[in-house]
Design brief:
The protein is of the alpha/beta class. The chain contains seven helices and six strands; from the N terminus they run H-E-H-E-E-H-H-H-E-H-E-E-H.
Length: 138
Protein backbone atom coordinates (compact mmCIF):
# COMPACT_ATOMS: atom_id res chain seq x y z
CA UNK A 1 0.00 0.00 0.00
CA UNK A 2 1.45 3.37 -1.02
CA UNK A 3 0.97 5.20 2.29
CA UNK A 4 3.44 2.73 3.84
CA UNK A 5 6.23 3.27 1.30
CA UNK A 6 9.60 3.60 3.00
CA UNK A 7 12.18 6.27 2.23
CA UNK A 8 14.65 3.49 1.39
CA UNK A 9 12.42 2.50 -1.56
CA UNK A 10 12.70 5.88 -3.29
CA UNK A 11 16.04 7.28 -2.10
CA UNK A 12 19.11 7.56 -4.26
CA UNK A 13 21.64 4.93 -3.27
CA UNK A 14 25.42 4.94 -3.83
CA UNK A 15 25.55 8.51 -2.60
CA UNK A 16 28.43 10.76 -3.53
CA UNK A 17 29.90 12.13 -0.29
CA UNK A 18 32.63 14.53 0.74
CA UNK A 19 34.96 14.50 3.70
CA UNK A 20 35.64 17.66 5.71
CA UNK A 21 39.21 17.75 4.39
CA UNK A 22 38.18 17.69 0.71
CA UNK A 23 38.69 20.82 -1.34
CA UNK A 24 35.82 22.91 -2.70
CA UNK A 25 37.15 22.31 -6.20
CA UNK A 26 36.36 18.61 -5.69
CA UNK A 27 32.82 19.51 -4.63
CA UNK A 28 32.32 21.58 -7.78
CA UNK A 29 33.69 18.76 -9.93
CA UNK A 30 31.29 16.27 -8.32
CA UNK A 31 28.29 18.60 -8.73
CA UNK A 32 29.09 19.01 -12.43
CA UNK A 33 30.11 15.42 -13.18
CA UNK A 34 27.10 13.77 -11.54
CA UNK A 35 24.60 16.62 -12.14
CA UNK A 36 23.63 16.71 -8.47
CA UNK A 37 22.78 19.64 -6.20
CA UNK A 38 23.52 18.29 -2.69
CA UNK A 39 26.44 16.34 -1.24
CA UNK A 40 26.55 15.02 2.32
CA UNK A 41 29.80 15.54 4.24
CA UNK A 42 30.82 12.51 6.29
CA UNK A 43 33.32 11.46 8.90
CA UNK A 44 33.64 7.67 9.08
CA UNK A 45 30.37 7.46 7.08
CA UNK A 46 28.49 9.49 9.73
CA UNK A 47 26.82 12.61 8.33
CA UNK A 48 28.41 15.76 9.77
CA UNK A 49 27.23 18.30 7.21
CA UNK A 50 25.79 19.03 3.79
CA UNK A 51 27.11 21.11 0.91
CA UNK A 52 24.75 22.31 -1.78
CA UNK A 53 25.57 23.72 -5.17
CA UNK A 54 23.95 26.97 -4.05
CA UNK A 55 26.45 27.10 -1.13
CA UNK A 56 29.23 27.28 -3.72
CA UNK A 57 27.39 29.94 -5.67
CA UNK A 58 27.04 32.06 -2.53
CA UNK A 59 30.80 32.27 -2.04
CA UNK A 60 31.59 32.85 -5.71
CA UNK A 61 31.37 36.24 -7.30
CA UNK A 62 28.45 36.63 -9.66
CA UNK A 63 30.03 38.89 -12.26
CA UNK A 64 33.77 39.30 -12.65
CA UNK A 65 36.06 40.59 -15.36
CA UNK A 66 38.77 38.01 -14.74
CA UNK A 67 38.67 34.41 -15.89
CA UNK A 68 35.87 32.67 -13.97
CA UNK A 69 38.02 29.58 -13.32
CA UNK A 70 40.80 31.72 -11.81
CA UNK A 71 38.32 33.53 -9.54
CA UNK A 72 36.78 30.22 -8.41
CA UNK A 73 40.24 28.84 -7.61
CA UNK A 74 41.02 31.86 -5.39
CA UNK A 75 37.65 31.56 -3.64
CA UNK A 76 37.95 27.78 -3.28
CA UNK A 77 41.43 28.12 -1.80
CA UNK A 78 40.10 30.66 0.73
CA UNK A 79 37.33 28.48 2.16
CA UNK A 80 37.13 24.87 3.33
CA UNK A 81 34.34 22.33 3.06
CA UNK A 82 33.87 22.64 6.81
CA UNK A 83 33.39 26.42 6.57
CA UNK A 84 30.88 26.19 3.72
CA UNK A 85 28.86 23.13 4.75
CA UNK A 86 25.63 23.29 6.68
CA UNK A 87 26.19 21.72 10.07
CA UNK A 88 23.66 19.99 12.34
CA UNK A 89 21.99 18.45 9.31
CA UNK A 90 18.54 16.94 9.65
CA UNK A 91 18.63 13.31 8.55
CA UNK A 92 15.96 10.67 8.15
CA UNK A 93 16.15 6.96 8.91
CA UNK A 94 15.93 4.46 6.05
CA UNK A 95 12.77 2.92 7.50
CA UNK A 96 10.87 6.21 7.81
CA UNK A 97 7.82 6.73 5.63
CA UNK A 98 7.98 8.76 2.44
CA UNK A 99 5.28 11.08 3.81
CA UNK A 100 7.56 11.86 6.77
CA UNK A 101 10.35 12.88 4.39
CA UNK A 102 7.93 15.03 2.41
CA UNK A 103 6.76 16.75 5.61
CA UNK A 104 10.32 17.53 6.74
CA UNK A 105 11.32 18.89 3.34
CA UNK A 106 8.16 21.01 3.10
CA UNK A 107 8.22 22.34 6.65
CA UNK A 108 11.93 23.11 6.82
CA UNK A 109 12.37 24.28 3.24
CA UNK A 110 15.08 21.73 2.50
CA UNK A 111 15.62 20.10 -0.87
CA UNK A 112 17.51 17.01 0.32
CA UNK A 113 17.74 14.74 3.34
CA UNK A 114 20.57 12.32 4.01
CA UNK A 115 19.15 8.88 4.80
CA UNK A 116 20.83 6.89 7.58
CA UNK A 117 20.83 3.30 8.71
CA UNK A 118 22.21 2.72 12.20
CA UNK A 119 23.64 6.25 12.13
CA UNK A 120 25.59 5.65 8.90
CA UNK A 121 24.89 7.37 5.56
CA UNK A 122 22.76 4.99 3.48
CA UNK A 123 21.29 7.24 0.80
CA UNK A 124 19.77 10.62 0.06
CA UNK A 125 16.19 11.61 -0.68
CA UNK A 126 15.55 14.80 -2.59
CA UNK A 127 12.51 16.78 -3.65
CA UNK A 128 13.09 15.33 -7.12
CA UNK A 129 12.89 11.77 -5.74
CA UNK A 130 9.62 12.67 -4.02
CA UNK A 131 8.15 14.28 -7.12
CA UNK A 132 9.03 11.23 -9.24
CA UNK A 133 7.43 8.99 -6.61
CA UNK A 134 4.23 11.04 -6.36
CA UNK A 135 3.90 11.25 -10.16
CA UNK A 136 4.32 7.48 -10.37
CA UNK A 137 1.63 6.69 -7.79
CA UNK A 138 -0.88 9.28 -8.98
Amino acid sequence: MREHTLVSEIMSKNVIALKRGDELERAEMLFNKFKIKHIPVVSSDVVIGMVSYSDLLKISTAEVTADEHDVNMVVYNTFTIEQVMTKNVTTIKHDALVIDAARILAEKGFHALPVTRDGILDGIVTTRDLLKYFVRIY
